Amino acid sequence: MQETARSCCGLPLGFKFRPSDKELLEYFLYMKVSRIALPPPYDSLIRDCDLYGDLEPWQIWDFYKDDDDGEEEDMFFFTQLKKKSRINRKVGLGSGSWESEDSAKKVPAGELETKLGFKKRFRYENKASQ
C-alpha cells in the first residue's frame, strides 16, 4: 500500500487542516521567517516549493496531492516571492503566469483592527491553453 501524506504523518482519519489567516501569519509564517522548524504534522502540511520555478501548477498539485480523500482542497506552500517584473512573469516552461484575483485584504491582529498582514489570492493563467 502506498504511503500518503496523511498516513505517513499519523494524522487521524478525517483530519482537515484549515488554519485561519491570523494563524497562518502569527504562527506558521512567524516560525518560517524565524527559522524555527514546524512541528509534525504541520511540517508535511505546509511545504517549501518554488511556485515560480520550472513546474506547472498541475505538476505541483499532482506531486503534493493526498490520494486518500479524493477532494480538491487548498494546499499551503512557503515560496520565495520574485520581484515584480513585466519582463519575467512566466511560470514553468510554458507561457503561463500568476494573476491576482483581488486586491490585498487586511488580516487584523485583533479586535483593534491592527494590521497583521495581507491576504491575496492568485490564479494561474495560461493564454496558450485558452
TrEMBL record:
GO terms for biological process: regulation of DNA-templated transcription. GO terms for cellular component: nucleus. It is found in: Nucleus. Pfam families: NAM (PF02365). Keywords: DNA-binding, Nucleus, Transcription, Transcription regulation. GO terms for molecular function: DNA binding. Residues 11-130 form the NAC domain. Its main location: nucleus. The keyword Transferase does not apply. This is NAC domain-containing protein. It comes from Dipteronia dyeriana.
